[in-house]
Amino acid sequence: MRKAVKKITAALLAGVMVMGLAGCGGNQKSTAVGADGKADTSKHEVINMLVLGDKPSNGRCEAMLEKLNAVLKEKVNAELKLTYVEWADWQTQYNVQLLSGDKSLDIITTATDWLYAWENTQKGAFMPLSEDLLKVYAPKTYQQVSSMDDWKYCKYQDQIYFIPEDYYTQYTNHGLFYRGDWAKESGIENGDIKNFEQIGTYFQWIKDHKEGVIPWDIGGKINPGGLLGGYLNSKTDNIVIPSVNVGNYEFWMGVSKDDPFTVTSPYMESDTIYDAAELMKKWNDAGFWREDVLNYDGDCREAMYAGTSGSDEHHSQTYYSKIRPSMDRKQPGSDAKMYWWGTENNNVSKPLKTHGAAAISANSQHPERALMVYDLLRNDETCYRLINYGIEGVDYIITSDGKLDHPEGWDKSKDSLDSNYWCGRNDDLELQDVQWWDGTKGMIDMYNTFAYDNPYTGLVVDKNSVEAEMSAMASVLSEYIPQLAYGKYPDPKKAVDEMREKLKAAGYDKVKESIQQNMDTYKAALGK
Amino acid sequence: MKAKGKNQGVQALWHRKLIGKVIRDNHILILMCLPATLFFIIFFYCPLPGIYIAFTNYNFRDGIFGSPFVGFKNFEFLMKSGQLWALTRNTVLYNLAFILLGNVLQIILAIMVNEIRCSWFKKVSQTIMFLPYFISAVLIGVLAFNILNYDTGALNTLIRSAGANPVKIYSMAGIWPFIIILCNIWQQTGYGSIVYFASICGIDSQIIEAAEVDGATSWQRIRYIILPSLKPTFIILMLFALGGIMKGNFGLFYNLIGPANSQLFPNTDIIETFVFRTMMNQNNFATSSAVGLYQSVFGFILVMFSNWVVRKIDPDYALF
Amino acid sequence: MKKNGVKMTASTAVVRIISYICVMFFSLMCLMPFLLMISASFSDEGIITREGFGLLPKGFSLAAYGWVFRYPKVILGSYGVTITMTVFGTILGLFLIAMTGYALQRQDFPFRNALSFFIYFTTLFSAGMAPTYIWVSRYLNLKGSYMAVFLQLLMTPWLIILMKNFARSVPYEITESGKMDGADDFKIFITLILPMLKPALATVGLFLALGYWNEWYNSMLYLGSAVTYKPLQYYLYSIINTAAQLKSSMAGAAITITDLPSNTLKMATAVVATGPIIFLYPFVQRYFISGITIGAVKG
């Protein structure tokens, strides 16, 4: 027995010593700027970019990279390699890639609202980028971002940690897709749903007239929040504060676009939630979704394409790039439309400028070259087209009016490029895809007339001190929200009150105070 | 042969010589155990100190041992949730059901299969009973939904055609413990019975022949020869399983119940599913390690105690 | 004698009949869902979503299989990788486990309790995902290598203890006789003990093989997309999960989403994943021979 004890102790000590070295990982600071201001590219370097997406297996991406690397070699004596974090289990895989302290990673795709940009910054996964570094090695990008004064959104403790994809227009505000033809028949004027209650009319009509069609065949297992968030968005002026989700739910909001810096939560503090819950119960009783919706994980979008679901829920970009063109093909005449949350009250914010961003890994061995490569990818037409669209003539062609199309026989399911590059797209170089709905530009212009800038770009919330409370609140929400969202409580008002009590007990006030503090600091930093 | 010298040096020398002799005498056996020992040192004992992460506020820059120490803060959310007792209770009770019921049924199944004389029937049925093991938890969830759901499920279709009112199984919390246990048993029994079946095969055939000559009935044979021979295996498997009593079968629960159907949580939520739901968006390695540590300590105490009890009764049956 | 004969026949018959009935019933229960699965994999996705599964395919269609085998080279590669790992891992692991199990049950081995505990302890505590990952990928430098998966599955404490238990049923006389003949422990193990452990080897070998065949978690953590051919279960799992993730992803239109038939696809991948390994069990069954004879020893 003694021998065993000795063995175990020895192993433990060895382990401790070795693991202690783990502390030495990732401590590289950004290197000093080249003395003469001009970059030294005599050594060929391989730049490894971490992207989120599935590794393509049709050879198109490899072919493109060959061409791209020829160009990169000529311009900056470098080549690009892509490391994929695949979609299955992406949360674990993405964070685990950072955990490994892999020295070969250089550029890391990230986002502040859903890809843990701030968390990872605070944990030291990214390298701070000095303005000098950016000026010398990524001049065009630096110019572009500075011109819109967007660097301030990427700073933590006064250092820049990533490059925002801020020069790219996209709208990712959510809403409900529905069929204009059925909406018209249901008596809604012009088939345009203009307020939330009309959705009910639409659903009811489907229930009464369309056998075998479920008005909203959603899988509650995948979408546990249902339409609650949409209702709150449409009936209040609250704006969601990003990256402070409680569990899976957008819980914390700012009061309105005129008063964004006061933290609140409609789930706790407004009566709108009562109305929402009552409406959802009504809709559940009317049978607008499956009885066992909370365990159903079927694909609502496919159902809509197949004509067995009357609607689907997602965001605008999905609508104009996929839903509308697909519905026109698969259900001709369906005139698919989108009722976006905020139609009634114009409560639509432009997407965060950091909805896509590029960071440099803290362990990167050649950040300067990485920045140079990024600069080219973002601003050089040849490189941009290669990485976004592929090889001209093979993967894409340009139509006479400058739009993006594909050659004869190109099949999306077999031939797509899948380079998954979305941390540096650029409106100046972006080509509009003919397959997208031709009303895309119109829709974007329409949004531009009333959408407001997201007031929280650059807000960093420190969740460390309130993690236990947030988790406790997450557990309460995961208990109540799905049933409220799908109307499963016999007495919704009572359920909401119960939920509120439990949230208070879980530490609602403490968390609110903490976030408010961060908000006040942010407000002061903006000089407002 | 103990040396009685007052001289410590001589005693130490004796001790070393003794140890040396013991090692030399058994060196082959030691070498035979060496690969396994090395394996566990490398893959298990070496990273074990990293469990310290459960007590830190981990960040990439400082690594595990450099990150700030925060004591039991990572365990707080478990306490604060107010659910810890219910979760622990659920986890333990389900595991007890799985382990006890499962093993008993596995033994019965193995014995019954052993009684079958028709060779092809034996082979075919064994292969078939083995199949459920391959059906992953995801599929069990899908199959269960297909059978039990209200709108299109096979069960309710049957009920409707008989003229009765369909049942909303997914809203009835009380029935789910039975469904879950049934699914687990369905999945594991065939697979688990193999161990017992192999044990039965290992019984010395001379003893069995002797019993038959003496006029023992099948039932007596089972009771007095087969069951006792399975006892050691049963106890060892039981003890082994106790160590993991706090570790739930995440896959099964998550796929059957799902993260959204909170109507069923009080009866079916276990530690893993709870942690998964609440920590989903938080990207916090330290906390998940903390939960694992909590589960481990619990199981450790339980198994130590049980092994001590078994050792008092019959040292041969103890795990170590 | 006749009286005894009657008693034996009646009671034995009853036991036997009960056994047949129960085994048949349980087999049917095991088979039924499997049939549902297979028939669903050959069905049309739309009909299945509307009507649920059935014992016979509804709207016969090979679409789901088309998706699984979309890139035949890749799936063949996956099969290849998994089969190779399973075969080599099982053989090597089985040998090491048997060796260790035998040594640990030898009553005359003074370190057996300490080592047993040493091995068993690893099941009680675990460093957790993050420290283990850091250790294996950074310090052992196995990130992206098949070895990260292969090595970690080679032995488990449960199998070693199981083997130890099986080995205990081999009478000590055999070892003694070997020692009397002047053989060392290893030689005794190879020549005398192993042949008597056939059911044990079959059992442990089967479990080991299944461990390799079903493994996907380590592949997800350590391999990800770094290798050309993913182990089978992980590859199939990622086909299914990808679609679900993409639909709800926030990343927008930069990603191509293709129309995957989700339900039937899940079934088809399950059939493909399970298929070959089913045939391993009948092959292994022949080793479950009843009763070892120690007559040879006494002779």
Query: What's the CATH first level of the largest domain in chain B?
Result: Mainly Alpha
Largest sheet of chain A: 5 strands, mixed
Outline the biggest β-sheet of chain B. Answer: none
Total domain modules of chain B? 2
The helix count of chain A comes to 20
Secondary-structure element sequence of chain B? HHHHHHHHHHHHHHH
Instruction: Give the low-confidence spans of chain A.
Output: 1-37
The amount of beta strand of chain A, in percent, is 5-15%
What is the CA-based Rg of chain A, rounded? 25 Å
* CA-atom Rg of chain B in angstroms: 26 Å
Regarding quaternary structure, how should these chains be classified?
heterotrimer
Count all strands of chain B and give the number.
Answer: 0
Number of strands of chain A: 15
Given the helix and strand composition of chain A, which structural class is it? alpha+beta
CATH topology of the largest domain in chain B: MetI-like fold
Q: Choose one word for the global shape of chain B.
A: flat
How do the strands line up in the largest sheet of chain A? 2-1-3-13-6
Question: In the CATH hierarchy, what is the architecture of the largest domain in chain B at level 2?
Answer: Orthogonal Bundle
Q: What separation lies between the terminal Cα atoms of chain B?
A: 27 Å
Helix content of chain B: 55-70%
Summarize the structure.
The complex is a heterotrimer of chains A (528), B (320) and C (299). Chain A has helices at residues 2-20, 60-76, 90-99, 117-122, 131-137, 139-147, 180-185, 196-209, 228-235, 266-269, 272-285, 300-306, 316-330, 367-379, 381-389, 412-415, 440-450, 467-485, 492-506, 508-526; strands at residues 45-52, 78-85, 107-110, 155-156, 159-160, 162-164, 174-179, 239-240, 253-254, 263-264, 311-315, 336-340, 357-360, 397-398, 404-405. Chain A is α+β, with helices and mostly antiparallel strands.
Describe this protein with a few key phrases:
heterotrimer; B: 320 residues; mainly alpha; MetI-like fold; 2 domains; 15 helices; C: 299 residues; 16 helices; 0% strand; disordered N terminus
